[in-house]
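Before the break, one more example. Copy the sequence into your notebook; we will annotate it together after we see the structure.
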Amino acid sequence: MVANERGPEAMDTTLVAIIAGAAALVVLVLVALRAERARAEAAAHIARLTESAERLAGMQSEMAGRLQQAQTGINERLDSVTKRLADGLAEQTEKTGNTLKTLHERLAVIDAAQKNITDLSQQVVGLQDILSNKQARGAHGQTQMENLVRDALPPSAYQFQAKLSNGRLADCLLRLPNPPGGIVIDSKYPLESYRAFREAADDARRQEALRAFGTDVLKHVRDIAERYIVAGETAESALMFLPSEAVYAELHASLPDVVEKSYRARVWIVSPTTLMATLNTVRAVLKDARMREQAGVIQAEVLKLLKDVGRLDQRVDSLQTHFGQAAKDIEAIQISSRKVTGRGEKIEALQLGDATPAEELAPPARPAETTSETGD
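Here is what the structure looks like once it is written out:
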């Protein structure tokens, strides 16, 4: 009776054990399937991460190559600009040296010519006959002045019979940059009073002729100052050209007060020799102005190049910042990958038994995992 009573209980126990074993087997199969799927997903994730890292490395290598190529191009441009600047400066230096040499040679020629003119100034009988007519004398002075200007300056640096804003016609206008601006040359030839002074028979007549000579010169000085010095259009001074070295020398020797008054009126009296020296100075000023213009163009181009280099440096810094951020992202991806791999290895190494608590078989809580990832 006892045996029969235990029989059903034993059968129930056996049935429960079978059911428990079947349940444990199902659990083991489910865990194995989940672990296999987790390993497959982890392997696929790692493969994708590896591919992304390789692409990033390739992009970084390509960008480094482009940056190196750009830097090489910039260095080549800088070398080319530096070479052009050096060549230009050397050429300008050579031209300036040649110009100075030519100027010295011409000054030597001028000195020799002045000596010859001094020797020939005594032989003026034929010239006096030619210059007895005022109109012919004026044309002679104008022609002499024009020849001197043409010999010394390029055509763009002067204009004959230039009309000013006040309606006056200037014998010659030298086109100089501001300052000082255009300078007018006006030819005057006070020959009658000079002849009277030279031919005076006694001291009284000589003094009277000398005063008349000074008066004529001052009249010409005032006329030039009033007509050919125009504020805002010409320079603050003008040139009065005396075609005769003898008249010029006598004026400075006998009438220094007249010369001083001409200085105060800003009218500079010049002879053929001193006009030639003045024109050579003007030519040097014009060449210097052109050189300064070219230097300004070169300086502007260099400043633009420096700005381009500055912008390139800023872009390189920005690109370097992006590379640094990409490196940080790759490092974070590698940390996540190592964690996924570690968790997969833990799942693979997990040993399940009859005594394994149900809590250990349950999957880890998702919020806690999210918190861990965020903390990384």
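Residues 16-82+309-369 form one domain. The chain has two domains: 16-82+309-369, 123-270. Try to locate both features in your own notes.
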